[in-house]
Amino acid sequence: MLRACSRGGRAGLAGCGVALLVVVAATQADASSPGGSPGLGEIAQTMQNPLARVRRFQIENNAQFGFGPDRELLNFLRIQPLIPFTLNKDWSLITRPLIPIVHQPWPESADGLGDVFLQFLLSRERARRFIWGAGPAFVLPTATDDVIGTGKWSAGPTLAGIYAGERWLVGAVASQVWSFAGDADRPDVRSLTLRPILHYNLPSGWALRSSPSIIADWEAESGSRWLVPLGAGVAKVFALRRGHLDVAVDGYYHVEAPRTGPEWQLRLQVTWLLRK
Q: CATH no. for residue 147?
Protein backbone atom coordinates (compact mmCIF):
# COMPACT_ATOMS: atom_id res chain seq x y z
CA MET A 1 0.00 0.00 0.00
CA LEU A 2 2.80 2.43 0.90
CA ARG A 3 4.49 1.93 -2.44
CA ALA A 4 1.21 2.54 -4.26
CA CYS A 5 0.74 5.72 -2.23
CA SER A 6 4.22 7.00 -3.09
CA ARG A 7 3.72 6.35 -6.81
CA GLY A 8 0.57 8.45 -6.65
CA GLY A 9 2.71 11.55 -6.08
CA ARG A 10 2.13 14.19 -3.41
CA ALA A 11 -1.64 13.85 -3.51
CA GLY A 12 -1.43 10.08 -3.16
CA LEU A 13 0.94 10.28 -0.19
CA ALA A 14 -1.16 12.93 1.54
CA GLY A 15 -4.33 10.94 0.95
CA CYS A 16 -2.82 7.73 2.30
CA GLY A 17 -1.44 9.57 5.32
CA VAL A 18 -4.82 11.08 6.12
CA ALA A 19 -6.55 7.72 5.59
CA LEU A 20 -4.10 6.01 7.94
CA LEU A 21 -4.63 8.66 10.62
CA VAL A 22 -8.41 8.23 10.33
CA VAL A 23 -8.14 4.45 10.67
CA VAL A 24 -5.79 4.69 13.66
CA ALA A 25 -7.99 7.31 15.33
CA ALA A 26 -11.01 5.06 14.90
CA THR A 27 -9.12 2.14 16.40
CA GLN A 28 -8.01 4.29 19.32
CA ALA A 29 -11.50 5.52 20.03
CA ASP A 30 -12.72 1.94 20.18
CA ALA A 31 -9.76 0.34 21.97
CA SER A 32 -8.24 2.82 24.40
CA SER A 33 -9.14 2.51 28.05
CA PRO A 34 -10.61 5.38 30.07
CA GLY A 35 -8.04 7.47 31.86
CA GLY A 36 -5.22 6.36 29.52
CA SER A 37 -4.53 9.82 28.08
CA PRO A 38 -2.62 11.38 31.04
CA GLY A 39 0.21 8.86 30.56
CA LEU A 40 0.59 9.37 26.81
CA GLY A 41 3.38 11.94 27.23
CA GLU A 42 5.59 9.43 29.02
CA ILE A 43 4.69 6.74 26.49
CA ALA A 44 5.56 9.14 23.64
CA GLN A 45 9.04 9.76 25.09
CA THR A 46 9.63 6.03 25.40
CA MET A 47 8.66 5.48 21.76
CA GLN A 48 10.92 8.34 20.61
CA ASN A 49 13.98 7.03 22.47
CA PRO A 50 16.27 4.78 20.37
CA LEU A 51 17.82 3.43 23.61
CA ALA A 52 14.55 2.59 25.37
CA ARG A 53 14.33 -0.83 27.03
CA VAL A 54 11.11 -1.72 25.25
CA ARG A 55 10.15 -3.85 22.28
CA ARG A 56 8.79 -1.88 19.36
CA PHE A 57 8.16 -2.35 15.68
CA GLN A 58 8.54 0.58 13.27
CA ILE A 59 7.69 1.05 9.61
CA GLU A 60 8.90 4.21 7.87
CA ASN A 61 8.07 5.17 4.30
CA ASN A 62 10.43 7.83 2.94
CA ALA A 63 9.40 9.27 -0.43
CA GLN A 64 12.19 11.39 -1.94
CA PHE A 65 11.25 13.69 -4.81
CA GLY A 66 13.39 15.16 -7.59
CA PHE A 67 15.82 12.26 -8.11
CA GLY A 68 17.86 11.74 -11.28
CA PRO A 69 17.89 13.72 -14.53
CA ASP A 70 14.09 13.42 -14.88
CA ARG A 71 13.45 14.39 -11.22
CA GLU A 72 11.61 11.16 -10.42
CA LEU A 73 10.56 9.52 -7.16
CA LEU A 74 13.06 7.53 -5.08
CA ASN A 75 11.31 5.56 -2.33
CA PHE A 76 12.56 3.72 0.78
CA LEU A 77 10.24 1.60 2.91
CA ARG A 78 12.21 0.83 6.08
CA ILE A 79 11.22 -1.90 8.54
CA GLN A 80 13.00 -1.35 11.86
CA PRO A 81 12.23 -3.32 15.02
CA LEU A 82 13.96 -2.44 18.28
CA ILE A 83 14.78 -5.45 20.48
CA PRO A 84 16.49 -4.94 23.86
CA PHE A 85 18.28 -7.69 25.81
CA THR A 86 18.97 -7.28 29.53
CA LEU A 87 22.49 -8.55 30.21
CA ASN A 88 22.52 -7.79 33.94
CA LYS A 89 21.20 -5.14 36.35
CA ASP A 90 23.60 -2.53 34.94
CA TRP A 91 23.81 -3.22 31.20
CA SER A 92 21.51 -3.84 28.24
CA LEU A 93 22.14 -4.62 24.57
CA ILE A 94 19.88 -2.68 22.18
CA THR A 95 19.58 -4.30 18.74
CA ARG A 96 18.35 -2.15 15.84
CA PRO A 97 18.05 -4.00 12.50
CA LEU A 98 16.95 -1.90 9.51
CA ILE A 99 15.47 -3.70 6.52
CA PRO A 100 14.96 -1.44 3.46
CA ILE A 101 12.59 -2.05 0.54
CA VAL A 102 13.69 0.24 -2.28
CA HIS A 103 12.17 1.71 -5.44
CA GLN A 104 14.87 3.40 -7.53
CA PRO A 105 14.05 4.73 -11.03
CA TRP A 106 17.57 5.74 -12.17
CA PRO A 107 20.17 4.94 -13.56
CA GLU A 108 18.24 1.68 -13.97
CA SER A 109 14.77 1.00 -12.63
CA ALA A 110 14.90 -1.41 -9.70
CA ASP A 111 12.56 -2.57 -6.94
CA GLY A 112 13.42 -4.92 -4.11
CA LEU A 113 15.31 -5.53 -0.90
CA GLY A 114 18.28 -3.24 -0.21
CA ASP A 115 21.29 -3.86 2.03
CA VAL A 116 20.31 -4.70 5.62
CA PHE A 117 21.81 -2.42 8.27
CA LEU A 118 22.41 -3.69 11.83
CA GLN A 119 23.24 -1.66 14.94
CA PHE A 120 24.17 -3.14 18.34
CA LEU A 121 24.30 -0.63 21.21
CA LEU A 122 25.63 -1.59 24.63
CA SER A 123 24.00 0.78 27.11
CA ARG A 124 23.92 1.24 30.87
CA GLU A 125 20.61 1.35 32.66
CA ARG A 126 19.18 4.85 32.74
CA ALA A 127 21.11 7.22 34.98
CA ARG A 128 19.18 10.45 35.58
CA ARG A 129 18.29 12.10 32.28
CA PHE A 130 21.20 11.24 29.96
CA ILE A 131 21.52 7.82 28.31
CA TRP A 132 24.29 6.67 26.00
CA GLY A 133 25.08 3.59 23.97
CA ALA A 134 27.97 2.33 21.85
CA GLY A 135 28.79 -0.72 19.78
CA PRO A 136 29.31 -2.07 16.26
CA ALA A 137 27.30 -1.51 13.09
CA PHE A 138 27.19 -3.82 10.08
CA VAL A 139 25.91 -3.54 6.51
CA LEU A 140 25.06 -6.86 4.85
CA PRO A 141 25.02 -7.18 1.01
CA THR A 142 21.45 -8.49 0.86
CA ALA A 143 20.21 -6.33 -2.04
CA THR A 144 18.22 -8.17 -4.70
CA ASP A 145 19.57 -5.87 -7.45
CA ASP A 146 23.02 -4.34 -7.94
CA VAL A 147 21.48 -0.90 -8.49
CA ILE A 148 20.03 -0.74 -4.95
CA GLY A 149 22.95 -2.32 -3.06
CA THR A 150 26.68 -1.93 -2.51
CA GLY A 151 27.75 -5.55 -3.04
CA LYS A 152 30.02 -5.14 0.00
CA TRP A 153 30.25 -6.30 3.60
CA SER A 154 30.81 -3.23 5.78
CA ALA A 155 31.33 -2.55 9.48
CA GLY A 156 32.24 0.20 11.91
CA PRO A 157 31.30 1.89 15.18
CA THR A 158 27.90 3.25 16.17
CA LEU A 159 27.21 5.73 18.98
CA ALA A 160 24.03 7.14 20.52
CA GLY A 161 23.31 9.75 23.17
CA ILE A 162 19.89 10.87 24.43
CA TYR A 163 18.84 13.57 26.90
CA ALA A 164 15.27 13.19 28.17
CA GLY A 165 13.75 16.26 29.85
CA GLU A 166 10.21 16.83 31.06
CA ARG A 167 8.98 17.70 27.57
CA TRP A 168 12.14 17.63 25.42
CA LEU A 169 13.93 14.60 24.05
CA VAL A 170 17.20 15.51 22.32
CA GLY A 171 20.02 13.36 20.98
CA ALA A 172 21.51 11.58 17.99
CA VAL A 173 22.51 8.18 16.60
CA ALA A 174 25.62 8.02 14.38
CA SER A 175 27.33 5.21 12.47
CA GLN A 176 30.50 5.16 10.36
CA VAL A 177 31.16 2.07 8.23
CA TRP A 178 33.93 0.87 5.91
CA SER A 179 33.74 -2.06 3.49
CA PHE A 180 36.06 -5.00 4.22
CA ALA A 181 34.86 -7.73 1.85
CA GLY A 182 32.55 -8.37 -1.08
CA ASP A 183 32.51 -7.90 -4.84
CA ALA A 184 35.98 -6.66 -5.84
CA ASP A 185 34.54 -4.97 -8.93
CA ARG A 186 32.22 -2.73 -6.88
CA PRO A 187 33.35 0.60 -5.34
CA ASP A 188 34.53 0.62 -1.73
CA VAL A 189 32.12 1.79 0.96
CA ARG A 190 33.10 4.57 3.37
CA SER A 191 30.05 6.35 4.71
CA LEU A 192 28.62 8.19 7.71
CA THR A 193 24.98 8.07 8.81
CA LEU A 194 23.82 10.63 11.38
CA ARG A 195 20.27 10.87 12.72
CA PRO A 196 19.66 13.85 15.03
CA ILE A 197 16.62 13.46 17.30
CA LEU A 198 14.59 16.44 18.50
CA HIS A 199 11.12 16.05 20.04
CA TYR A 200 8.95 18.48 21.99
CA ASN A 201 6.05 16.67 23.65
CA LEU A 202 2.67 18.39 23.90
CA PRO A 203 -0.43 17.33 25.90
CA SER A 204 -2.58 14.34 24.88
CA GLY A 205 0.23 12.44 23.15
CA TRP A 206 1.01 15.05 20.47
CA ALA A 207 4.60 16.02 19.67
CA LEU A 208 6.57 18.32 17.39
CA ARG A 209 9.65 16.65 15.98
CA SER A 210 12.64 16.76 13.67
CA SER A 211 14.75 13.71 12.91
CA PRO A 212 16.47 14.00 9.52
CA SER A 213 18.76 11.30 8.14
CA ILE A 214 22.09 12.96 7.27
CA ILE A 215 24.39 10.91 5.05
CA ALA A 216 28.00 11.46 3.96
CA ASP A 217 29.47 9.25 1.24
CA TRP A 218 33.22 9.82 1.62
CA GLU A 219 33.95 7.92 -1.61
CA ALA A 220 31.78 10.24 -3.73
CA GLU A 221 33.13 13.27 -5.57
CA SER A 222 33.13 16.58 -3.73
CA GLY A 223 29.83 17.96 -5.04
CA SER A 224 27.87 14.76 -4.35
CA ARG A 225 29.17 13.78 -0.94
CA TRP A 226 26.46 15.02 1.44
CA LEU A 227 22.71 14.61 1.86
CA VAL A 228 21.49 17.08 4.51
CA PRO A 229 17.71 17.38 5.03
CA LEU A 230 16.17 20.24 7.03
CA GLY A 231 12.56 20.17 8.21
CA ALA A 232 10.12 19.02 10.87
CA GLY A 233 6.90 17.16 11.49
CA VAL A 234 4.17 16.22 13.92
CA ALA A 235 3.38 12.97 15.75
CA LYS A 236 0.52 11.54 17.80
CA VAL A 237 0.41 8.56 20.18
CA PHE A 238 -2.72 6.41 20.39
CA ALA A 239 -3.54 3.89 23.13
CA LEU A 240 -4.53 0.42 21.88
CA ARG A 241 -5.65 -2.82 23.52
CA ARG A 242 -2.18 -4.28 22.94
CA GLY A 243 0.31 -1.48 23.47
CA HIS A 244 0.46 1.95 21.83
CA LEU A 245 0.78 3.30 18.30
CA ASP A 246 2.72 6.41 17.27
CA VAL A 247 1.94 7.98 13.88
CA ALA A 248 4.21 10.74 12.50
CA VAL A 249 4.39 12.78 9.30
CA ASP A 250 7.53 14.82 8.46
CA GLY A 251 8.67 16.96 5.55
CA TYR A 252 12.33 17.81 4.77
CA TYR A 253 14.00 20.01 2.17
CA HIS A 254 17.52 18.95 1.18
CA VAL A 255 19.77 21.94 1.82
CA GLU A 256 22.69 19.84 0.55
CA ALA A 257 22.31 16.93 -1.86
CA PRO A 258 24.18 15.05 -4.59
CA ARG A 259 23.94 16.55 -8.08
CA THR A 260 21.42 13.85 -9.02
CA GLY A 261 19.16 14.76 -6.09
CA PRO A 262 16.74 14.09 -4.50
CA GLU A 263 15.47 17.59 -3.71
CA TRP A 264 13.07 16.94 -0.81
CA GLN A 265 11.34 14.15 1.05
CA LEU A 266 8.08 13.26 2.75
CA ARG A 267 8.21 10.72 5.58
CA LEU A 268 5.36 8.68 7.08
CA GLN A 269 6.33 6.71 10.18
CA VAL A 270 4.27 4.26 12.24
CA THR A 271 5.67 2.76 15.47
CA TRP A 272 3.98 0.05 17.52
CA LEU A 273 5.07 -0.22 21.15
CA LEU A 274 4.52 -3.77 22.40
CA ARG A 275 3.40 -4.32 25.96
CA LYS A 276 5.55 -6.54 28.11
A: 2.40.160.40
